[in-house]
TrEMBL record:
<dbReference type="InterPro" id="IPR001279">
    <property type="entry name" value="Metallo-B-lactamas"/>
</dbReference>
<protein>
    <submittedName>
        <fullName>MBL fold hydrolase</fullName>
    </submittedName>
</protein>
<dbReference type="InterPro" id="IPR036866">
    <property type="entry name" value="RibonucZ/Hydroxyglut_hydro"/>
</dbReference>
<dbReference type="GO" id="GO:0016787">
    <property type="term" value="F:hydrolase activity"/>
</dbReference>
<keyword id="KW-0378">Hydrolase</keyword>
<feature type="domain" description="Metallo-beta-lactamase">
    <location>
        <begin position="26"/>
        <end position="216"/>
    </location>
</feature>
<dbReference type="Pfam" id="PF00753">
    <property type="entry name" value="Lactamase_B"/>
</dbReference>
<dbReference type="InterPro" id="IPR050855">
    <property type="entry name" value="NDM-1-like"/>
</dbReference>
Amino acid sequence: METCWEEAGWERLAPGVARRRMPEWDETVGVVVGRTGILVVDTGATLRAGAELRTAITRLTGRRPTRIAFTHPHFDHVLGSAAFAGCEVYGATGVDELLRREREALREDAIRHGVDRGAATEAVDHLVGPHHLVSGELTLDLGDRPVLLANVGPGHTAHDLAVLVPGRPEVVFCGDLVEESGTPQAGPDAIPGHWPAALGRLLALGGEDALYVPGHGSVVDAAFVRAQRDELAARFGVST
């Protein structure tokens, strides 16, 4: 029987695939349910948020999550990781070193964006970094369904990872390479000259009929991603 995601405040995207738009920072957290494993895409901005997500997913599915994929290393997408004890964590190549090296910067970024200082410090102190790094593509087996992790960056950061869930429809978790609720944010760690090309790789990955799930905002289609690619190319003066 299909889980009633909507009744619990989640958005069902496909059979066994859902996402939640988190309060405060509107970051997307995704979940992919297989017969033998459950993948969580990003973990929220605090340990409390991560714990609430873990509890909700376990209650809805009857099983604990087993794997986590970080789409990129910003505070609102990774700081809930320690709440998912026992999960195997995946990220783009180099994100492990960055999270070790930049922990103080990560904490200060969270505080600057409104996370309580104590909560930010606790989450950073207990942050669980990736156990597995993806340099190209890696397929995870969740039992009855494969899930493809693809290192499509750099773009929004130097370590952007997309998650493709095959099916009807196909679902692509884009992280902040795609944003619907506002202009894509290019911070000091963005790689503007490569961002349009990363969106081109996303489009090649999902195709014309996929659902593209942005890091912030409503689910979009290929036309939206293509338009955002062209806007970013014009904004940063690079070709598509």
